[in-house]
Amino acid sequence: MGSTRYITSMGELTRKDNSLCFRKDGKNVYIPVENTTEIYCLSEVTLNTKLLDFITSNNIVIHFFNYYEGYSGTYYPKDKYNSGKLLIKQVEAYKDKRLEIAKQIVRIIGVNISEVLYHYYKHDKKEVKGTIDWIRKDFKERIDVVADVKQLMAIEGEVWQRFYGDFKYILPEDFIMNKRVKRPPDNPINALISFGNSLLYTKTISAIYRTHLDQRISFLHEPSEGRFSLSLDISEVFKPVIVYKTIFELVNNKKIQVSRHFDKKVNYCLLNEEGRNIFITAFEERLESVFMHPKLKRKVSYRTAIKLDCYKLIKFIMEDREFTPFSLKEGL
Questions:
Q1: Of these four, 156, 170, 201, 313, which has the most CB atoms within 10 Å of its CB?
Q2: Looking at the whole model, is its pTM more than 0.70?
Q3: Do the beta carbons of residue 272 and residue 261 sit within 8 Å?
Q4: Superfamily (CATH H level) for 84-319
């Protein structure tokens, strides 16, 4: 998986000479640090401060997930990309241009949802046309006249609900979602969405960490204690493209199946280890898939597109250049 390492089973992660060593069931698996930028701990993993010191010196980020496959937190080396000048400008942008930035994020969420649905419309799922038409007219017009971020969040919530409502035309019956349930997910489709969104959120945390942006100062989501709210902002436009397209293809091609890849308990439903591994492989392949960037005149991966959105935001904050997040329609 290149720069990302996933640990999906219980064990101990230690430093062994100048490598990382994961010990599981009495066996050692060595992880080279040279091309590792982030590690995902998706099960109970034991580690110590000696390891964290080694991780810090090699600028590796570690993301931790809980029993319910939800994101718990991130360990990353002390900020070496700090910029006082950008921090001041980012705060000023929050005070003076928050609604402008937030509108662009929500507008592109709609564009990307519409593009994903249009793919299915072209493949004889004509029932999704109502949502596509609503996004292209009513949704767009309401964003233009909205007066504050709270109203904008309500419009964003509506576009997601309409999108979820069309799943019944795209997915087989055993993956139908009655409603979006997050903590913990209560059925297979909610389990896939929660896990996929958490992976994307942490990918965005890693991307922002390697820029001079401050994770805590967001524009669409309310800045709050205990979470990296800017990662929520930047990851949101990529959900239709990366998370949902991955889910639709895995389910419709029967690579993920209800009977084989989920653990269903009384109050929750989770991917089992085999299911997680299938999803992770497809998710990473989606991140590494490329498209031709019309401005850069070269092929760019979706992983790089996340980083480019961070740089677009920096240029808006520092140079007042137009900020338009990644659009599946425009390919940039």
A1: 313
A2: yes
A3: yes
A4: CRISPR-associated endonuclease Cas1, C-terminal domain (1.20.120.920)
